[in-house]
Amino acid sequence: MSILAAERQQQILERLGRDGRVVATALAEAFATSEDTIRRDLRDLAGRGLCRRVYGGALPVSPASRSAQIRAGEATDRKAALGRALATLVASDSLLFVDSGSTNLAAMKAFPDDLRLTVATHDPAIAAALLAKPQITLWLIGGRVSREIGAAVGGRTLADVEALRPELAFLGVCALDPLEGIGAFDPEDAEIKRALLRNSGRLAAAVLNEKLETGASFAVGRAESLESVVLEADAPESVARAFAERGMNVLRAEPPEAR
Q1: Spans of all domains in the chain
Q2: pLDDT (tens digit, 9 = 90+) per residue, 106-139?
Q3: Mind listing the pLDDT tens digit for each residue in 193-216?
Q4: What is the CATH number assigned to the segment(s) 68-258?
Q5: Helices within 111-222 (DSSP H only)
Q6: CB-based contacts of 97: which residues, under 8 Å, 6+ apart?
Q7: How confident is the model at residue 69 (pLDDT cuts 50, 70, 90)?
Q8: 10 Å Cβ neighbour count for 2?
Q9: Structural fold of domain 3-61
């Protein structure tokens, strides 16, 4: 790679970190070069895992590409705040599917002990947390457990998920962008999420700030597939407005220090 190309790519990364998105046409104009050159730059950066290419440009890579064990110990107070807000969406005496994820686990811990509910999940940690809730009927979906995802995946798991028709599903979101939609990093995980999009009456997700306006390897569906999205108290208003313009119900969690 030439020094000029390396400098240009570094500046592209700086713009991506500052603006949250870069557009190939605008970059070509800014650097006085062709769109083909910019597309080569973006391909190179994406190949090195430094960005995620999308139509017309690129997004940052979501931090959710790290393993479930690492993610479980991160931002616990912020996840707890999101989980408490997400838990308020549940109606008693209904069927809820809970997708894998530490923020969804926080929502389970926020359920009151007297909540009457049937919950299906393929995440052993979520199932274990629900065992302490005496009024909840628990369905644990089995299969091969992925340590990276922290839940069962594969054909058997997918078949069992496809057979369910939950009134509400809490989706685990790896990346979420108003334009590019919902993303996941594992193809089998993405299949399970797509099945939930097809078969659930309503879908909701709680999303950390760093997953917003980012991309992941596998497309799951449009952002507006989510009826409700729970954002952190300090999430960018521009992102919240973009979701609302797509007809999504946007909720904000309380600041963690408010409790």
Answers
A1: 3-61, 68-258
A2: 999 999 999 999 999 999 999 999 998 999 999 9
A3: 999 999 999 999 999 998 998 888
A4: 3.40.50.1360
A5: 124-130, 155-162, 187-199
A6: 119, 120, 121, 161, 164, 166, 168, 169, 170, 196, 200
A7: low
A8: 7
A9: Arc Repressor Mutant, subunit A (1.10.10)
